[in-house]
């Protein structure tokens, strides 16, 4: 008899656990979808507990000010953290810094600098600089974002300490911890198995509809998780890396009507479309020092690059393997194709995304179906047979394939 009861008990316990933890995963998912990442205490506790290597010299505030170094450090760090995450009470603005300066890597595009961005920038700046941007912000965007902050000198010192520690501990932004997600995945799988076994064999719970609902829910839920993970693995199409400067094609091409060729100036006559050097940006950004979304922060990076002589390290989005030959001049210059035929509507993207999969099938498909401007292009004068056929009406168009664009040697070295 115990067997049946135990089984039933186990089944209900698992169900309870799932119901208990599911709100946390839903709030987790909702949070990941928004730009404003709020505080996550887990990782903070981690930051505070993991103090190795953080007692370095520039953190003298924490060291000089306390008798019991470790204890004082902990306490101050706790305070600093509460200020950064807006968890303290006082007059004026108490908005969490993390609601704009994200402390986790996020999928969505965020115009505000991340916590790591500002932390790295401020390693070499002073507490007075920090007081400046928080208490007397200049520039439209910062003035609005940092309005009405009302920090004491001590609080500014604490914030500076927090940022220094943050930059010392992170090379890149940590990704959201997803241990909960793994646990939930396992829990759901277990529940699924229990429901299935009970439905088919043990039959302890009478309500069959309950089994079916649970089985269906588990299947849908876990399939979704697996599919999402799989897509993330094979990132090629839809590849959209984060760039060192938040350069937006939408703002430049769509809103300010700058021609593609102003920046990609070699696209008509050479193999590569070319990425503009920082000096091209300066043609405009010597005067335009502030953007309406990112303030001065992103545009300052252009000036730093030029002053330091370090080129901006753009991350290449489209990558063909080395054994493939692709030439822009053939397609844009001679072929008269539109950028959008291959790159999608770049002018609507804040962050460039790879739209086509760049597979061999993709190249060949177009070479078999696309019509080339055959009669008007002198380059094709030598194809007498094709010209005759076209005139005689034997064919109604000439595709790249007919002039040899599907020969292996045309694309492979
Ligand atoms: C409403 C959004 C918002 C909040 C909240 C916010 N910031 Fe900012 N912060 C910004 C934006 C946008 C910029 C970039 C603007 C610029 O630098 O011109 C910025 C820039 C900065 C910079 C770099 C300034 C520079 O010299 O370039 C620092 C440092 C900074 N914030 C610290 C903080 C701290 C600390 C807090 C919390 C007390 C905070 N911010 C809260 C939006 C915000
Ligand atoms: C003001 C200069 C500028 C203009 C105008 C401009 N681009 Fe760009 N483009 C860039 C910069 C800088 C990058 C590298 C950073 C990035 O990927 O966002 C880039 C990257 C790209 C890439 C991705 C290249 C890669 O890494 O694989 C494509 C595709 C592209 N641009 C197409 C276009 C098209 C199409 C237009 C016109 C609709 C256009 N660009 C207009 C500056 C410009
Ligand atoms: C032909 C002029 C021109 C060139 C060249 C140009 N920009 Fe801009 N850029 C603009 C204009 C106009 C704005 C919009 C300013 C505003 O928001 O009021 C802008 C805004 C920006 C912004 C801020 C966006 C925002 O809203 O916060 C960034 C970052 C930027 N540009 C980066 C670059 C980079 C990087 C290059 C070189 C690859 C570049 N720009 C080349 C004209 C130009
Ligand atoms: C027939 C398809 C096609 C068309 C049309 C096309 N591109 Fe490309 N583009 C590609 C491919 C494929 C790559 C990747 C090349 C590589 O990795 O060698 C690429 C790469 C780029 C790059 C990265 C730098 C480079 O040259 O590798 C930029 C920038 C770019 N394209 C801009 C443009 C612009 C601007 C236009 C329109 C004037 C355009 N492209 C039209 C297929 C195309
Ligand atoms: C959207 C259509 C389209 C896509 C996609 C496309 N091509 Fe083309 N391609 C053409 C056209 C049209 C021509 C003929 C251009 C002309 O008039 O010279 C051509 C010509 C060529 C040629 C020259 C052939 C010759 O006979 O000289 C090569 C090489 C080539 N393409 C390689 C590629 C590669 C590699 C890819 C994929 C990475 C690719 N193309 C993707 C449309 C396309
Ligand atoms: C229009 C251009 C084009 C032509 C013509 C072409 N290829 Fe490719 N080929 C490609 C591209 C692009 C890739 C890279 C695909 C990728 O990275 O997924 C590729 C990849 C390959 C690969 C590597 C396998 C792989 O999936 O990466 C082989 C092998 C190959 N091609 C053989 C051939 C042979 C044989 C021919 C002649 C019958 C041919 N190709 C004609 C564009 C072409």
Q: What features would you highlight for this structure?
A:
413 residues; 4 domains; single chain; flat; 53% helix; mainly alpha
Written description of the protein model:
The chain is mostly helical and 413 residues long. The protein has four domains: 2-24 and 177-233, no CATH class; 41-169, no CATH class; 277-313, no CATH class; 359-413, no CATH class. The protein is built from 19 helices and no strands. It has helices at residues 2-33, 41-49, 60-64, 69-84, 115-122, 127-135, 140-145, 153-169, 179-202, 208-233, 249-255, 260-263, 278-285, 297-308, 328-334, 339-343, 360-369, 384-392, 408-411. Helix 1 runs antiparallel to helix 9 and helix 4 (69-84) packs across helix 8. The radius of gyration is 29 Å and the shape is flat. The structure holds heme C (6 copies). Residues 260, 264, 267, 272-273, 275, 318-320, 326, 328, 331-332, 337, 339, 341-343, 358 line the site of one heme C. Residues 243, 247, 249, 252-253, 258, 260, 262-264, 275-276, 314, 316-318, 339, 343, 346-347, 352 line the site of one heme C (HEC).
């Amino acid at each position: 008899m115990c067997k049946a009861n135990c089984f039933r008990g186990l089944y209900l316990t698992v169900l309870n656990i799932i119901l208990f933890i599911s709100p946390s995963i839903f709030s987790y998912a909702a949070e990941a979808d928004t730009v404003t990442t709020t505080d996550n205490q887990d990782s903070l506790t981690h930051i505070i507990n993991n103090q190795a290597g953080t007692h370095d010299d520039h953190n003298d505030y924490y060291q000089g000010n306390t008798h019991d170094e470790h204890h004082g450090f902990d306490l101050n760090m706790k305070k600093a953290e509460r200020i950064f995450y807006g968890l303290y009470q006082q007059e004026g603005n108490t908005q969490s810094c993390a609601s704009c300066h994200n402390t986790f890597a996020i999928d969505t595009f965020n115009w505000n600098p991340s916590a790591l961005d500002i932390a790295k920038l401020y390693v070499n700046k002073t507490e007075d600089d920090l007081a400046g941007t928080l208490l007397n912000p200049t520039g439209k965007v910062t003035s609005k974002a940092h309005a009405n902050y009302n920090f004491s000198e001590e609080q500014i010192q604490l914030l500076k300490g927090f940022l220094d520690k943050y930059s010392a501990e992170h090379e890149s932004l940590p990704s959201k911890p997803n241990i909960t997600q793994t646990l939930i995945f396992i829990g759901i799988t277990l529940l699924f198995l229990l429901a299935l076994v009970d439905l088919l064999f043990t039959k302890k719970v009478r309500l069959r509809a309950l089994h079916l609902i649970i089985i269906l829910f588990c299947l849908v839920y876990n399939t979704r998780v697996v599919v999402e993970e799989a897509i993330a693995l094979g990132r090629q199409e839809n590849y959209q890396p984060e760039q060192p400067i938040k350069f937006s094609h939408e703002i430049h091409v769509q809103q300010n009507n700058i021609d593609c060729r102003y920046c990609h100036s070699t696209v008509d006559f050479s193999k590569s479309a070319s990425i503009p050097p920082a000096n091209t940006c300066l043609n405009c950004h010597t005067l335009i020092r502030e953007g309406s979304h990112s303030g001065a922060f992103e545009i300052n990076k252009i000036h730093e690059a030029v002053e330091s002589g370090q080129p901006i390290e753009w991350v290449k989005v489209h990558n063909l393997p080395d054994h493939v030959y692709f030439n822009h001049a053939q397609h844009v210059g001679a072929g008269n194709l539109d950028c959008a035929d291959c790159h999608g509507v770049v002018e609507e993207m804040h962050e460039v995304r790879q739209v086509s999969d760049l597979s061999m099938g993709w190249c060949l498909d177009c070479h078999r179906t696309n019509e080339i401007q055959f009669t008007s292009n002198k380059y094709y004068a030598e194809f007498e047979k094709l010209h005759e056929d076209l005139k005689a009406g034997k064919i109604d168009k000439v595709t790249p394939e007919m002039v040899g664009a599907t020969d292996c040697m045309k694309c492979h070295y």
